[in-house]
Fold these 2 entries.
Entry 1:
Amino acid sequence: MKKKLLISDIAKQLNISITTVSFILNGKAKEKRISDSLTARVLKLVEEVNYKPNQLAQSLRTGKTKTIGLMVEDISNTFFANIARLIEEKAYKAGYKIIYCSTEDDTAKTRDLISMFRDKHVDGYIITPPPGVEEDIKELIAEGLPVVLLDRTLPGLPTNFVGVDNRMGSYSATEHLIGQGYKKIALVTTESGQSQMLQRLEGYEQAMAHHQLAPKLLKIPFRVTTEDMIPKIMAFLDDLRQRDDLDAVLFATNYLALRGLEAIDKLELRVPADVGVVGFDDHDIFRLYKPSVTAVAQPTEAIADQVINMMLDQLDTDDRKQATTTQTAVLPTSLIVRNSTTRR
Amino acid sequence: MKKKLLISDIAKQLNISITTVSFILNGKAKEKRISDSLTARVLKLVEEVNYKPNQLAQSLRTGKTKTIGLMVEDISNTFFANIARLIEEKAYKAGYKIIYCSTEDDTAKTRDLISMFRDKHVDGYIITPPPGVEEDIKELIAEGLPVVLLDRTLPGLPTNFVGVDNRMGSYSATEHLIGQGYKKIALVTTESGQSQMLQRLEGYEQAMAHHQLAPKLLKIPFRVTTEDMIPKIMAFLDDLRQRDDLDAVLFATNYLALRGLEAIDKLELRVPADVGVVGFDDHDIFRLYKPSVTAVAQPTEAIADQVINMMLDQLDTDDRKQATTTQTAVLPTSLIVRNSTTRR
DNA sequence: TCGGTATGCTAAAATGATTTAGCATACCTG
DNA sequence: CAGGTATGCTAAATCATTTTAGCATACCGA
């Protein structure tokens, strides 16, 4: 097994000091007045023998690991998987690697993960925060570590944030339904206090209020399994239906919409004739489903762009003026109108 | 900002040497004959002040980073996203973090990524290899680094591998179609030479041959965009249809099946009356689609289990006897019969 | 009383880089 | 020709651990 090359090997071969080699490799040749000819010789040799500095040693000395921690609610959810893919790509281009994990929106697990990431000295944190981690995040910020929150914020936490205009998204989705002649519109959401979910609720309620329509809510508790979800939704819809009080549903997340479609199917309701359907967050399935499903789409690529830009921004900035400015990007959603809301 | 605690702080406070603290923290107290009382005092203080060793320094000294590199073709593909989620979970339980990236099945990119992972000194490699990285992987193995290939193998590479019985999967899918009375069965696959794709092709061809039926193939070139894929599939199916030579299709991957369903939809063919449809690799959509789509399901959880077990196995083993034994797990697929192949 | 060994701990090297402080030498200026 | 400055480089400290080699002291048996 070939021995790994050290910086001292390079220095020895050229009969110069380690310091000089280090300066040259770190682009400080000019600044440190190393002659051009020596610089060239060093770079040539380094190239020839394919010397690569030991990143662990570098990290120990500099405190930088060129690694970003990415914590999403669930990496297997298409929305997050797509974001993760884009973030990864852009991060690699900037020389950063990504360590990821899924929080499952579990406070204790997330706190643990944050602490593990710290132990590993990641340079920056991208987080979709569960409730109850405010203090941990504040600590990160207090220590001058770059943090970008994604998808949802936490109250009272002045931090860089990237998300969409959820209120507007569900407002316009509701307006769209109303415009199509639907009046008895229900919202199926989760019980969570996550900011983005509250905003989606707010948008729906505002649109309904604006038209003097009565809101109808189903809030699914958080840790309900997929199987239990469908009967719950069925019961809710069926009940409204019995009272002739339902002609459309807005689902507040893509997985709720998937379960919802199954529920609607089992109740043998026709879409869009019996009920109109809109999902928040687009999904491959919505294009393909018959009838295709109208959805509030989030601009995945733009989100990922903003996130990584904010992160790189902070990573580039000198640590001093870190906490001074916080950026916030609230991106617009777009309503993709498909057949599930088109009455004929 | 509170100063980070060092091992020397612990030593100083108790008036003992750093060495002793280190031994105790690394569970070598007994072995090194440190008295129980001192051991207890050290552990107590460590607990009280919440001292945590600097992992960078540990890694530099030991050469272990407690990090596993995961390279999949595309982290945003549901199949890989699900696997990634499970692997992450199990890895964390064993104290390992995951760095991931998407190879896009691009040789040059992957070689680059492998080299980056090496620079970062990951302890183990989980890879879905694109063609042309045989040498790089051989090098990893030669250096005694744990490697587990996932989903596909490379010819002439004796390595730990986890995948499914692809040949059997598509064989039985084809048999199923034939059992339902379909005879003019086409296979839509990719042009790639990836082992798993070749096996799926082989299974199909064997089943067809076994019943003296003529195979009909469409091989989609690799870097075709989603939009270009649909017209290609349409043309292929339509052509066969014109010649009255099509009554069922087997799609060799889940994304091909998705595009395929769109194509079938546009051609206004009815499923399963005009064409039966089977997908390789299950997908949420297949349950929900009308009619629901029969699929060859891969046992995601079992795959992830095997992968992480093989990996941890190697990581635990002393480096010496590393390369001696290689494990291979070929898991069975299961055919989930749904409406898309049920003629009435 | 002396050699052997068990006990309980530690000094110092090693891991592989970056960075601070500074040393010669040459050159220039007045 | 003294004194200052620019040039071109380097010795040694530093980052925070782990690990090797070994040092006192006490005790025991012969």
Entry 2:
Amino acid sequence: MPMEKTFNAAEAEPRIYAEWEKADAFAAGANAAPGAETFCIMLPPPNVTGFLHAGHAFNHTLMDILVRWHRMRGHDTLWQPGLDHAGIATQLVVERELARTQQPGRRELGREKFLEKVHEWKERSGGMIVQQDKRLGASMDWSREAFTMDGQFHDAVIRVFVDMYDKGMIYRGKRLVNWDPHFETAISDLEVEQVEVDGHMWRLRYQLENGETFEYVEKDEDGNETLRETRDYITVATTRPETMLGDTGVAVHPDDARYAHLIGKTVRLPLVGRSIPIVADSYADPTKGTGAVKITPAHDFNDWEVGKRAELRAINVMNPDASMWLKDNPAFAEGCDAKALANVVQMLDGVDRYEARDAIVTAARDDGWLDGIDTDRHAVPHGDRSKVAIEPYLTDQWFVDTAKIVGPALDAVRNGETKIIPESGEKVYYHWLENIEPWCISRQLWWGHRIPVWYGPTLTDGAIDADAGWTAFCAPTQDEAFAKMAEYYGHEDLKVVTDQREAEELLIAAIGEVRDEGAIRTPEAPTALPVYRDPDVLDTWFSSGLWPIGTLGWPQPNEAYEKYFPTDVLVTGQDILFFWVARMMMMQYAVVGQKPFHTVYLHGLVRDEKGVKMSKVLGNVIDPIELIEEYGADALRFANCAMAALGGTLKLSRDNIKGYRNFGTKLWNAFRFAEMNGVFEGRTGSATIPAPQATVNKWIVGETAKVREEVDAALEAYRFNDAASALYGFVWGVVCDWYLELAKPLFNSDDEAAIAETRETMAWVLDQCLILMHPIMPFITEELWGQTATRNKMLVHAEWPTYTARDLVDAGADAEMNWVIGMIEAVRSVRGEMNVPAGMKVPLLQLELDDAGRNAFARNESLILRLARIDSVTEAESAPKGAATIPVTGGTFALPLADIIDVGAEKARLEKQLQKLGKELGGLKGRLSNPKFVESAPEEVVEETRELARDKEAEEVRLKAALERLAEVG
RNA sequence: GGGUGAUUAGCUCAGUGGUAGAGCGCUUCGUUCACAUCGAAGAUGUCGGGAGUUCGAAUCUCUCAUCACCCA
């Protein structure tokens, strides 16, 4: 049955993918040669609630190319798939879903029930991306699919937390953190986005106490005094007036003469009447505003530092939802005027931060301590998920002491143990790691790995000390934590309660009982000690930081881990270099003391064809599944591969994809041509390299070897675009444009041996095209592989070739074919420019020609006649009147077409060519006549230049002769 | 403010010291027996400006301009 006219991607792709799966073609180690080296790639785990977007499609295509390439080379290959539980994002999605379907909310449901809902949701709509990946053709080992919340991985994460805790790399502390008031959780620095907003700078007057004053001076740009007055207040400026309730100081620069005598004095905080000191700190910038800044240590990172240096109190004045917390807030009340306090509590307690801001500004205006308002454009930190302004917030959180684990991660890149490409990524990596901050890893969420820490009452001198807070016991399981507690308390009579509050209530009651007995608590005492588990979960990136070892079954001893770790290449977006790559580096070294991978390939964001970030708002999102449906997965993959220049911007355009779909059709039709010429009759897919006689066949074998080397070199260097363009150029520009055309006369001849040889060679060449193209375009190549021979293996496991140009290029055939192709192009060019009708066969005159040319012509006459559409060749001394001249290497031909050729046009054509030639020749001669060039340039460059100049000179002579003849005629 | 990168044909981009390229688009011609999702031919560049290093610079250095992204 003859082949279809085009490849039917929609029909073939699912069928072929199913065949691969049925054959377990992607299983770890499939097609591995005995004792082969390993190759392992970890899929950056997509969000479990996610779907395949253009960025995934790109990222996954590159990995699939590498993986398929290694697998075909017989390496022991594993592409490890899996999904990330994506804590905050997933919790958000499920909460929205509950609200949308009018179900009870998270808090109403309670932790356990809510988590059931999350799991339900995950089962229902999670993992959609897996199905989509299959449509893309991704060859992951699905049998090993991992999930960050699954049992074994979960246990590994907990185990690492415990290890790092025991090693002192993790600690808990009351710190200022980035607080997301929407989700009511801490987030890390990296999850904060700076957003430029048009806002205001409010100037507030704080009254100096004890009758102090100072000289306030204003100057213009030239330093001339414009204002001088004596003031009994200090003006501070702020973009967040509501934080003034937590002010505990005013800072001025130590060198600021205006305020020197005020340092140590106090001001009275408006509204609350708190007396706060004026302190010296170089954080205050004398050139900005009035040079005095209010200090709110509990609500600003800079102020926190100032507060530490000046020993100022930190007063938290907000609730977790960023409403004001004033009532029942002892720290706030301390030092306040009782009446003022009552008023401000009445006015602002529980009020949202922005409403409080307005109310405070209004009060300041009414009471006369508003100095003024300036418009001000400034950056406001926002939560990257919630999009609300974050608050610096003072809470107890868990931190990774990054300073302790950053060293090996830095060293690994510095000494080349792990390479980041493109290299610019390394600079960015150093810059971040060299200035790394502690990493806040606790999140006040429910969906995630719950921190494996239990708290029990603290003992002082063997007695329970209710004032000493709670003691942490870190262990992988509750049983192990209990064992630790048993050691600490001397008994295991413990009662697990839900939270700290309940534990405190029970403890106070218990101590009451114990105290009644007039003794410290003893093991025999009747009341169990209340203990509770830390309610927080770990940052999602903490778990994904363990992705390499966790997916390989660590810490259980197992073959996969032994074999594939450290893994080989990480392919990921440069936007998560810090979030993920740097943390994996730090954590793998911290936990198992080895690098996670030897190469990190970073790529940019996939953008639309104009280079604009895709976003729902702009409506320029390109859905890869839609593209696959329209053009086929292979076309999308080839487009992805072709745009993957190192460090380049990734612009995805439908026109390009369409072009690569056409490329697939071109390949398909080359096979159709071969089939029609009996190339595949009785084929068994022998991999034997042919040793043909005909020049054309010898030549194409050499060309194939060249492209094999190019593709391997490109992939070796992660230059995906080079691999794509080498293959595109070879398949279309060499095989289709030339080899198939040149083979036509051979197939049409009576020479049975030549026909057989050409069939054999073409079958081999086309097989090589399939093999070399397969990593990029797996579907169409697999289909053609199956249709054109009876094979013992699918293409996915075909043997990748290793022949070299050195072995297979026949220099003679190479030179001869280049001459023939040049000759044909020269004739076509003249025909085209002289407007010789395309279908018209014309006579050719051979004027002068050297031996090499004569040989090449004679040996390929039928090809030349056919492809240049020549009907006869005659040798002649000179060209007749009205002939067009065709200079070739080593000689001159002419087309005697007096009635077609316009002498004027031919003259113009020759002159134009001569002019171009003259320019080139000028450059070449200029270089050669420069003694310094001949002296200092490499021998081969000089020789090349000489040769080129000789050729161009010869051509110039021929063109000039032709022009002279024309002049005689005209 | 700091960092990183970009600027090459009408468009989108390759090209890291040795004859300026590809794809798309454009113009002309073409139903030659694989393919019109095609073929043949053609036009289009002071490689952002300036300076320097070099026998030689799109490529290396400096500087200026414009733009993008990341971090404050």
